[in-house]
Every structure is written in structure tokens, then in C-alpha cells.
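Regression report. Comparing outputs from two consecutive submissions.

Submission 1:
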Amino acid sequence: MGYQSNLTVMKARVKGSVDAGLIAAADYYIAAMKAKLASNYYTGGAYATGHLLEHIFRTDPYTDSNGNRTILYGVDDEAMYALYWELGFYKWPSVYSESAKKWITITRFPLKWYRVELWVPTFFELQPRLREVFLAAARPVMKR
């Protein structure tokens, strides 16, 4: 019997192992972000509510336009306010008026810049561990 190629089987194993690694790494990162957001996001946790934590998601792995297996994670449209904190924004100081029963903006003071970066610094902080998690999930699939 001559040589028989298992290229199709090998391609399926590589794709499966990359997908398993991407899912494991994304889930690890999301769990770390949820822990960080729950404990100290937005000036000591004042704005980190269950609402934000419930709207963190990841996609299933897919092939992007360049042929690379990719996975996306972040917050959905319901919690886009997290993006404003991450990128930064200016805000006028305001006070609550008991007599008017509403918030009043104080425009004679300068704007205040708010920014709390957590997503990108956490990603770079976790890079070595994410590689380990990826490989730990990918290796068993390749060995099948």
C-alpha cells in the first residue's frame, strides 16, 4: 500500500486546537476582567454594577478576512459606557438640587477629564498566562 495523506484530518485538528486555545484564553481573560471590574473599576467600584458584568461577551472562533482564526470579546451595546471610561471623556461638574429635584451642571468651572484604563493593561499583564492557557487547551486536541 502506498502513501496516504491525512492532510484533511490534520487541518481539522489544527483548526480545532486553535479554536480550543482561543476559547480558553478568551474565557480566562474575561474571568480576570470581571474580577477586576467587580473590585475596583470606575473610581473604586462606584460604577461597576452587575449590569456591566452581565454584558461582557465573547464570540465563537471564526475565520477573518485574512484567513486567520479570530475571537472577539468585549461589552455589547447595552454597556458601551465602559468604553467611555476606558478611552476617557470630559465632564462638567454637576450638583443635585433638592429644590429643583434635578442635576444642575456648573459651567463656570473647567471640564474634568475622566479615564480609567483596565482592558488593555490587563491584557498585556496577562499575556504570559494567556499563552499558557492557550497551549494547555490546544495541545490535547492536537494529540487526539
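Submission 2:
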Amino acid sequence: MYRYFFILIFLFTISYAIETDKQKHILVSAIIANKTLETSNKKVAFLTSLTIGLTKEIYDSTQKSNRFDTKDLLADILGSYIGVFSPKFIGTYTINSKNAYGLKLKF
């Protein structure tokens, strides 16, 4: 039952309703959390992914013509949650030549 819930959340997040930048934040956070989960518990995986996202936003705020984006951080939180609580759905990922966000889904 929960598995289908996460599938629906993931499909929603990759829809065109969300900006491409937010999709990238969700996907990268999910991958980081999922990969961290292979060697640690859920709390560590979630916090690791979230810390990386937060660090990136803090870095962005120090750059000219850039700012700390709360919506990016919310996308990181959602991605971290997806990565930790739906590891069978996220599965493995690959990098392809077109972009750095290739993804293989495993059901």
C-alpha cells in the first residue's frame, strides 16, 4: 500500500507542474538519501541528504545575483523523504551523456 503512495508522490514530483530546478533538487536529494541508506540508518540518510541541500543553499546565498531559496530546500526535504522511505522504488541510478539525472526505476 505504502509503495503505491510513494510511486504517486514520485510521479507527481517529476511532472511538468514543478520547475525543472526543483525536479533536480528532488531527484538528487532522493539519490543521495537512497545511496546513504545502503550504509546507514534512515535518520542518518535523511539528515545527510538534507545537510547537503542546506549547504548548497547557504553557498548560493553567498554568490552574487543568487539567494537562499526556501522552495529549493523544501524540494530537498521531499527528495530526502522519497529516497529514505521508498528505496525499492528509487532503485539504482545511472549517469547518461544527455544529462546528469538519468534514473533506472526498480519495482
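Expected: both submissions complete independently.
Actual: both completed, but the second showed a warning that disappeared on reload.
Relevant detail on submission 2: The chain is about 65% helix and 0% strand.
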